[in-house]
Design goal:
Blueprint: H1 2-6, H2 11-28, H3 46-52, H4 55-58, H5 62-78, H6 84-103, H7 115-127, H8 140-176, E1 181-186, E2 189-195, H9 196-220, E3 223-224, H10 240-246, E4 251-252, H11 256-261, H12 264-290, E5 298-299, H13 318-341, H14 355-378, E6 381-382, H15 384-389, H16 398-407, H17 412-428, H18 438-444, H19 452-455, H20 458-464, H21 473-487
Parallel strand pairs: 3-4
Antiparallel strand pairs: 1-2, 5-6
Helix pairs in contact: 5-6, 5-8, 6-7, 8-9, 8-14, 8-21, 9-12, 9-21, 12-13, 12-14, 13-14, 16-17
The chain binds arginine (ARG).
Residues 54, 58, 114, 140-141, 144, 348, 350, 352-353 line the site of arginine.
Length: 490
Amino acid sequence: MKKKNSQPNSPLDQSKKKTKLKSNSQKAGVANPMPWGGRFEESMNELAFDFSASFDIDKVLFEEDIEGSLAHVEMLMLQGIIDKIEFQKITTGLKEILVELNSGNFKTMGKEEDIHMSIESRLREKIGPVAGKLHTARSRNDQVALDERLFLKKTAKRMIEVLLDLQLTLLAKATEHEHDLMPGYTHLQRAQPILLSHHLLAYVSMFERDKARFTDAAERMNQLPLGSAALAGTSFPIDRLWVAQKLGFREPTLNSLDSVSDRDFMIEFVSNCSMVMMHLSRLSEELILWTSFEFGFATIGDAFTTGSSIMPQKKNPDMAELIRGKTGRVYGDLMNLLTLMKGLPLAYNRDMQEDKPALFSAIKTTRQSLQIMSAMLKSTEFHKERIESSIENDFSTATEIADYLAKKGVPFREAHEVTGKIVGFAIKNQVSLKDIEFNTLKGFSSKIEKDLYQFLDPKKSVAMRKSFGAASPDSVKYQLKFWKKKLVQV
Ligand code: ARG
């Protein structure tokens, strides 16, 4: 035991040092610079401070922080909790700080752990101790929840704008290629002929749902958490309804505990980002396939591709690959948030500060991916001839034979069987469906007449798919009209 104690790194040694430090600082009368300093005798360990500081990440929230503070302080004045002069001093100070932050002239003291404390310290520097009144009847717990909701309500709007831009790009491409035939796939095997416009418009529908999800999320988070204070509300006669209205919230939240411990709104937002990325990743995958030598359906503009330093013929779809790759990052952000919140007891826990890196990463990645996809698509050229000629001999009109027989009273299962045999014959004899002799066809079913040939033309086949929402030119015309009316402002 004795030996151990004499080692310089033994726990006992360290605790001795600690005690010494403590008494030193007491002697020297070093005040704890933290806002909770009153109860503490020792200042915060430097490593612990660095570990817990979040200013570099949450500084993004400065605008919302000041917006929230301005509304809060006005309510405090209207409710007689602070006087008019105090209100004016605080408001002027906060507005000046906003200018500093916007112009990049904001200087932190270096001792504040987050954006909320930094703004308050700067305010104190500017207007003196009255700055301390700003924090009356609130806590950083409801303050940060407010900032995040304000920020995400705005971000939802911006996300909807970039989604709309991508939809408009897709709509323009679909209009340009309204009548171009292309093979439709299931299992990545040739299925039935469709129109390229129909394919592109499928994505417009997907991104419309994504927009609606952001609108829904913004509506659900449209409740004011401020006034919940640390967890249990406040004894000050605050007016949460007034603050809610002032800040553009539908209503105040109903339960103070829930208000400060809730990050559902953020998880929902990042889940929406994940869904957008999943859609973008599918489109990316298609672009990657379509621009391959094997498909040769499209070429992405030079500005959005890269070459190879060793293989001169290469033109790589890196942006599409990166969108596909970054989808994993956003899914990771979603898992990060879900895992972060799992098992947290009510109400606020410091773990929750870790919500921001995941949130900001998901937003940045999703927004950039949407912007890149839109610009890259604009630069993409589709090769009509190559796409259309690829359908010539692919048997993708076989379903027409089955439908033809079914319309003549043959049960569909039987019609399918007969058609399968015809396709088998064509493959064996290396002949396309429309080049099989009439007598041979008749041999497969007595119901076959010469009029069948017209349906083996891919153009006719597409034109016949007239059911609502189908791939026919009529249906595409309807879709184009629908989206133009809905998305294009006149
Ligand atoms: N920086 C903190 C966060 O983002 C603010 C809330 C701190 N509250 C507290 N009780 N320590 O979560």
